[in-house]
Amino acid sequence: SIRNIEKIWLDGELKSNEDAVVHCATNTLHYGLGVFEGIRSYSDGENSYIFRLDEHVKRLFDSALIMNITIPYTHDEVKRAIEDTIVANNLKEAYIKPMVYLGSESLSLDTREHTVHLMVIAWSAYNYASNGAQGIKMNVSSFTRHHVNIAMTKAKANGNYMNSQLALREAKNAGVDDVFLLDSDGYVSEATGANVFMVSNGVLYTPELANCLNGLTRQTVMQLAKDAGIEVVSKRITRDELYIADEVFITGTAAEILPVCEIDNRTVGKGCVGELTQSFINDYQLMVRAKLPNYTRWNYKLNIL
Ligand code: PMP
Question: What domain of life does the UniProt record list for this protein's source (predicted)?
Answer without folding.
Answer: Bacteria
